[in-house]
Every structure is written in C-alpha cells, then in structure tokens.
Amino acid sequence: ALHDRDEAVLWTTGNGGHWIATRGSSIKAILNDHESFSSNVLMVPRERGLSNLLPTAADPPRHRPFRMVIQQAFAPASVRAMEAGIRTLSRELIAQLAPRGEADFMEDFASRLPTGVFLQIANLPVEDFGLLYGWMEAVMRPDGSADQGELMQRFAAYLLPILTERKSRP
C-alpha cells in the first residue's frame, strides 16, 4: 500500500511518529547521508530506543573500526564455515515445531535463528539461547515493559566474565 502512494518519504503518527522511506532510492540516499539522518537511535518509538549502541547505532567514522572487526564474521569464507552449524540450528528449531503441527514462521523460527547464529559466531554456550533470546527480543522489539539500560546491564554482566576469560587466553 505504501508503494502505491506517490510519496517516496512519508510521515506516520504510529509508534510515536516517524518517517518511512518507501523507495529504494530514498532509502539509499538516507543511509548515505549520516549527517542528516543519524543512526544514533534506531528504535521506534525513539524514546524506547538505546542511543550509542555500538556499532549499530553509531555514525561514520566512529562505527568503522567496530564494523571492520564484525565484518570478518560475515566474509564469504566465514559464512561457508558456519553453514553446517546454521543448518543444524535450523533443523533443531524446526524439530521443536514439528510436534505442534503448526507454526508462526516469524515468531517461532525467523526471529530465533539470528540469536542462534550469533551464539555460533561469538562462540557462546548454546544452552544460554533462551536467556539471551529473551533479552535480545526485549532490546530489539521494546514494548515498554523492560528498561533498556537494565537490559544492557544484564548483557554486560553476562559477557564480562566471558570476555575477561578470553582476554586472559587470547
């Protein structure tokens, strides 16, 4: 319906009000103009979003060193190396759905897969999936029921011992 309109960029009052770009050319122009369109807060509504969440919510040139590190995980050779693990994860998620005989693709599979892949990339314990998935959902889809700063403190408390241990044995 948005594509049927003449406007390439339009305003909506939904979710506290925000702009929606409806054309690829507009989206590209916005993404390439970080001075006019900052990535500092990416969530809608804005007041629920975290600012300065590195590297996602950082503008160039600040984000570049962080993205260079992360980019290695998504190089073609790295992705090929993860393929078997991603297939296994996909099969496990589907196996959990099979007994039900039905599923909501987005809720039951597509929204869970990225967290499982992240665990593989970061070499984090698979058994922590439920904990981390819940926190990630609350961060990525804030509904006002959780304090975003508190959630980030939970992530920090979880990751600090892991990072400390990894630094001791690089």
Produce the secondary structure layout:
Layout: E1 9-12, E2 18-21, H1 24-31, H2 64-71, H3 76-97, H4 105-110, H5 113-122, H6 129-140, H7 148-168
Antiparallel strand pairs: 1-2
Description:
With 170 residues, the protein is mainly alpha-helical. Helix content is 51%, strand content 5%. A two-stranded antiparallel sheet has the order 1-2. Strand 1 and strand 2 form a beta hairpin.
Question: How would you summarize what this structure contains?
Answer:
The chain is mainly α. Helices cover 51% and strands 5% of the residues. The protein has a two-stranded antiparallel sheet.
H/I helix tally: 7
Strand order of the largest sheet: 1-2
Cα shape: globular
As a whole number of angstroms, the C-alpha radius of gyration is 19 Å
The residue fraction in helices comes out at 40-55%
Number of strands: 2
Order of helices and strands: EEHHHHHHH
Average predicted confidence as pLDDT = 87
Low-pLDDT sequence parts: none
The major sheet is characterized as: 2 strands, antiparallel
Task: List key phrases describing it.
5% strand, globular, 170 residues, single chain
